[in-house]
Amino acid sequence: MENINDIKIKLIQKVCESENYYLLSSFLKNLENQSKDIVSEQDLLYKSEKPLTDEEVEEYFKEDEIVLPDYVMKMIERGMDDIKNGRVYTEEEMDKMDEEWLK
Length: 103
What we know:
Layout: H1 4-17, H2 21-33, H3 54-60, H4 70-84, H5 91-102
């Protein structure tokens, strides 16, 4: 395991070598905002962020009813009927059709 001084030296070297403005500024902001109590809970991503209540979680993940147009439902039903009656192609058959089409 590396000691703290080795880690500091490697960090300084990487920072000096980097030309990535966004990476460096992000790294600086992260260090400046670092809590002195390293064991404390993680800071919220945004200052306005707060944990959701049970009701808010339920509303957020509520399933919406999706109504498909009749023509889409007919296409799905036709496809299901094709599967049920064996009107399908294997992967190998599709590969052969692709090869013929690409000639």
